[in-house]
Fold each of these.
Amino acid sequence: MKQKGIDNFSGKRVWVIGASSGIGEACTQALLRAGAKLALSSRRVDRLNTLAASAALNQALVVPIDVTNPAQLEAGYEQILQAWGGIDLLLFVSGVYVPLRADNFDIKVVQETIDANLLGPMRAVALVLPEMLKAHTGHIAIVGSVAGYSGLPKALAYGPSKAAIINFCETLYYDLLPQGLSVHMISPGFVATEATAQNDFEMPALISAKEAATEILAGIQKGEFDIHFPKRFSGFLKFLRILPYPVYFWIVRRFVKI
Ligand SMILES: NC(=O)c1ccc[n+]([C@@H]2O[C@H](COP(=O)([O-])OP(=O)(O)OC[C@H]3O[C@@H](n4cnc5c(N)ncnc54)[C@H](OP(=O)(O)O)[C@@H]3O)[C@@H](O)[C@H]2O)c1
């Protein structure tokens, strides 16, 4: 049994969480061009308003939310239900990255990262699932990261938050496939955005946010569960994780400035 894709985004109701910059903004722009109806969420309302201003009449809704605030998420989804009666695709892109190493391991950073990157998507999924299950149709797409494949340096909070997204998507897939719902687990490599602008090292196989959006939407169209890119980098990391630990650690130490 194969899960469904979305042949044509025209007229589809998409809730993009994390629409204000980077990968989410690029997905929003591509979906607007494809004629989808967009509910745009994140905290920076001015940016969401600018994006909505570029949309056709009644094509975009601005739904400001902080994903760490359950009441805002609930009110945001209620606003969408009032306007559209439901959604066809939840595209959860929002996320935070704070480099963290053992010598400054800070539990506050860990809590904030898990809250935004793991509990945030779980809260959104909890909201949209009842209507999707009732309708026996719908798509849940969550942006994780190749950093969730296996441990990498400087990611003591980010890595675990993204590893858990992989497990969450895999586990959701078992339950949702028989119900006619699709899960899309999205694992980008390095993408040039505000988040990676802080990196002080050369990022291998770096792609633009526009290229990332093209990969994401093509994967959703095809009904793919595992959407990872660019393949020359994500494929290499997938290979690394099946190696024995001593070999894996040796290779990572060689390639990454630790
Ligand atoms: N760039 C990469 O190389 C890369 C690689 C792998 C995975 N990723 C993942 O891709 C996703 C997008 O990252 P990006 O690189 O495009 O970064 P970005 O440009 O910094 O975008 C992050 C987005 O998340 C939103 N956001 C952050 N915290 C939020 C919160 N508490 N509530 C609501 N929205 C929140 C931001 O909006 P506001 O600030 O307006 O709230 C913004 O729209 C993240 O999940 C990231 O982990 C990125």
Note: Strands lie at 13-17, 37-41, 60-62, 89-92, 138-143, 181-188, 191-192, 207-208, 226-229.
Amino acid sequence: MPLMISNRFAKWNLIAISVLLSVVYFGIETAGQSPDLFRFFGRLHPIIVHFPIAVIVCALIFVVLNKMRWVSIPDNVVNITLVLGSWSGVKAILAGLWLAQTGGYPAETLFLHKVMGFGATSLCAILIYLRTSDHRILSKPVLGRLCWALMTIWLVVGGDLGGRMTHGKGFITQYAPGFVVAVLGQPNPMKERFDLSTPGTTTVFDGIISPIFVEKCSSCHGGERQEGKLGLHTMEAISTHEGDEPLIVAGRPEESLLIKRISLPEGHEDHMPPLFNAKPLSFSDAELIKWWVEEGASFETLIADANLPADIYTILQAYGLGEIRTGVFALDIPAPDSTLIANLRAKGVLIDILAEGENLLSVTCKGVASCFTAELDSLAQQVTWLDLRGSDVTDVALTKLASFPHLTRLNLSNTGITGDSLAAISSLAFLEYLNLYGTKVSDASIQHITPIKTLTAIYLWQTAVTPEGVALLKAALPEAEIDTGVLEN
Ligand code: HEC
């Protein structure tokens, strides 16, 4: 006698599936441990899961074709297909839970994926019950359609979440034609991994290190699960960890347990992350974590302020770090007026754009009588390098430089200035280079520049400044190189 899916059968099927799913839901913890054989079965989840999906989609196609009256497939066939779908769904869920136990999956995505799987499987059993019921309300087609709609959404979303967990974001769009990418959006996995777009306001920890920990470590060292009593998901968890050995010794990667554990040979049983159950750390991930510890394991250092050795810079560039702009280059300076530039050039002033695409200017007044014209004043925002070597600039004219806020290099060598007016420029916030070679500056007047903490190079050769004056200056500006033309011994 052929199998007929009666309402009675459907009811028992629904009860059996519900009981089983509840037992499985509460009985198998995704964070728990199971024997290897189960884990092996778990690894087959990505293959097994396609069977219930295909079967359910088949049933849906049957229903739609029947509705359109293109074919006539007996209701019983559709119901049998759905019974197959519900039971193979349970099997896929079991495998999924054992796979989850092997670790390394982001907790939130995993949870949603799990809900979709359980949901689609129970819906399948509910549908069979509704379809075989002759109850006035239950057999209404609207209920059935609702179930189908929900099921379709859950299968699509659940499948996508599953794909993301196994292959990472962007797996589908990577080779897709342009129009598909336009619809789905193209995440660039390299460029999205770290937050490098605003190095001036993002810390090394938030932008680079934390994303590595979240992606590669926090499935076992996160909010839910803290293997070895270690959490790597927040600053607090990292800085308050207490173990037998110090987790991080700032500046000393070789003494930090964190670095020791990730630097062990892959086959070593203490190697982190564990060989089989987690996403491995790439070479560059490990290098970045080491660099962070080496540089003091700070949670505050901004990417723009961090010391970036060439190899680290290369790694970060590959992840989309642009040129790091500091000092005047980080400012938004308006474009200079080109007629002013042309007029000054006509007078013999040499003017150049400091760098391609920048609005900053380098100006040289060598041999030009009275360089300080109203035209130059109008370029005060843009002039960054000013070379007044050998010009007729006077102490009085020098006071005007206070209104050139972006000067980084100022050359006053071989001019008649005495330095008495240097106090006027002590407010320049970016000045790095000051050349006073061959001027009349003295021990007293040179002290006017001590407030300019940005100075890194000062030239005092052939001036009246004595070694005592230099010593005073050096004490006030320890970072600056002071060149007096005398070799230090
Ligand atoms: C699949 C799970 C898993 C992942 C992923 C994982 N770990 Fe672990 N980790 C463990 C377990 C289990 C322990 C405790 C047993 C041990 O010390 O080996 C541990 C211990 C540690 C310890 C020692 C803590 C202490 O004080 O004893 C460090 C350090 C560590 N892990 C770092 C990491 C880092 C860094 C990552 C990411 C790159 C990572 N782990 C990823 C499972 C994991």
Note: Residues 103-104, 216-217, 219-221, 227-228, 230, 232, 243, 247, 257-258, 261-262, 270, 272-274, 277-278, 281 surround heme C (CB under 6 Å).
